[in-house]
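Example record for the data management plan.
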Amino acid sequence: MDTIRPPIVVILGHVDHGKTTLLDFVRKSRVAAKEAGGITQHIGAYVATINDKRITFLDTPGHEAFSAIRSRGAKVADIAILVIAAEEGLKPQTKEAIKIIKESETPFIVAINKIDKDGANPQRVRQELAEAEVMVEDYGGQVPVVEISGQTGQGVDHLLETILLVAELEELSGHATGPAHGYVLESHMDSKRGTVATLLVQSGTLNIGDTLVAGTAIAKVKSLEDFLGKVTKSVGPSQPCVVLGWESVPPLGATFQVASRDEGLRQAQVNTALAPVALFAHENMPDKRTANLIIKADVQSSLEAIDQVLRTIKSEEVDYKVVGFGVGKINDNDIKSASATHAAVIGFHVDTESSAKRAAEREQVRVETFDIIYKLVELVRDIMSDLLDPEIKRNDLGKLKILALFGTQGKTQIVGGKVTSGKAVRGALVTVMRGTKLFATGKIVQLQQKKADVSEVAEGLECGLRIDVNPSELGIPLLIKEGDVLEIYEEQKIKRSVA
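Corresponding structural encoding:
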């Protein structure tokens, strides 16, 4: 018989818009932790209570991890919360999160956060959402919107009540009895406890002693803990739990189900035969500049998650290529490979051996390690961004009229002139205008006033200049003449980013 189950909620949004702050506030204020100190472990999910009703929150590191799970066909969350900072509005990751929510057809609520900050403009956020084809309720649409402060807690109870209202409309249900099935949220190897996996039960009841199959991994449940770390005998629908007893590491995002030992072995063999293509089999375009990467992680499932998340990075101009990957600490061999391939070494939940650190300094190899997947992705975006040609912005400084010619030394001309507007600056670039036409280009390499070297000369003053004139198409510098006008400017290089 079906029973109403608690909603499973994921929080998405742009980095630094307050997802973690909101989760932390809900955890501290709405989680009934009986022992001193509250929750003692992080398992990727927890259950909050409001008005005697429960809500399960997926404590994911942003939308990338959610995408990695969803890409396997798993619709883990019942409801999504789209967090948007009131003073910043929609950002690239906000728009990406909207796309993910729409593609997965997940009901969602907009939480306009940081309404207590200077510059907060909730109405502008509503307008930007409308422009992104998200119509909130007070703009005549169907999407609920709540104004909150994750820092002070203002509006958070209203948000939780709205979640329960949306859940009621969705009529969420699940079998409380029968064999359990659900999803793998996290998995890793613990040096003391062996393979540990966090599961989310979607339907049925999971009991100690059950045999599970998840992807190619099998477990006989030896120990079952709830999200507070308390040992329990069984776990029901919409409940997260930690399971020990795995023979191998189950993949992130895999579905699990209870089966007999023989059925589990058969299913694991079938899943092995249907295993996806090789990790990091990312097709590269030969005409793109490419950032080489070596990736090390704690377990195979982490590598799988990183592979899925990196696939979300798109650029028309640059690319990435994983030239090596593996499980375990970053070692000397990783540094040697990185040096040979001009690659950056990226670790996830792993340390770097001391000898490898010394080798990296000696070989000038970039090594970065992370515990949060979205920060790893941001680094890869940044490394790829370094390959983009910068945007060149011209800042005009002034104009100077040539009054006298003093000589030529190769490509260098020595001239005298008067600053007619702005200023002349040593090291600045110039375009030489003859009448209305661009005649030549060059650079001011020396600037003198009253025979003394100066860094700049102000408007209305005369000065002497040494100018390096760029060669013409014939390979010889074009000579500046009296009456020519120098337009003096500097170029600002602005780093571009991979969106």
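Summary line stored alongside the record: The mean pLDDT is 86.
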